[in-house]
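Q&A log
Question type: sequence-to-structure
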Amino acid sequence: MKILIVEDEAAAARRLNRLVRELLPNADIIDNLETISSVISWITVNGQPDLMLMDIHLADGSCFEIFKQITITAPVIFITAYDQYALQAFKVNSIDYLLKPVKKEELEDSISKWENANKQVDFSSLIEQMIAKTKESPQRFVVKYGQFIKAIESEEIALFYAEEKSINLLTFSKETFPIDFSLDRLNEMLDKRKFFRISRSVIINYKAIGQMFSHLKGKIKIATVVPCNVETFVSADRAHDFKNWLTGKGN
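Response status: OK
Response body:
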């Protein structure tokens, strides 16, 4: 069995490789890919693997962009971080999924399910459901600070960023609050017309962008309209999509 792993987090990818080798010692892990573009190129050149293990949130966007651009006939086990609407879509379309961190016994069950399955999956139906759900963006976020609770309108948020082991939001009024969502989850929840994930650690509101500068190795430096504790660079592999997003073409 030839298996293709699509995962942009190095630790998660190593874990998947180890688990697959333990469960399927005779299987051939033919490649480890990290981006939408690399998967499209790989499939175009090499054809379909026997099985794909694919994270939803890749370095350059949602993996469902892959299915819009090329035909995937190989069975796919999706991997996600507690995306409830995604899980429901998988159940409806009989596509299996795993929650992070991936557990050995759950991966074993998923592989067994695919080995015994004999049907085509309607990926187009799944994509339509995912797109519909991503339009249901929250109007406000509830944060806690000390003994207090506060609701913050999405329009008031300049950016979300990771710092050490916490995820924070920064408002246009220069207030910072911790928030109980991962950046992966926020990236799926937020209105794609207004927010863009410029790097692994930052999601920015269009209105928070001050000036932009070309930087080394294809990066784009952003000067935000409010001071931020972290650097705001658009990573090189997201620069093209970011430019499209600025024009409204990336929605």
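Response note: Residues 2-134 form a domain with the Rossmann fold fold (CATH 3.40.50.2300).
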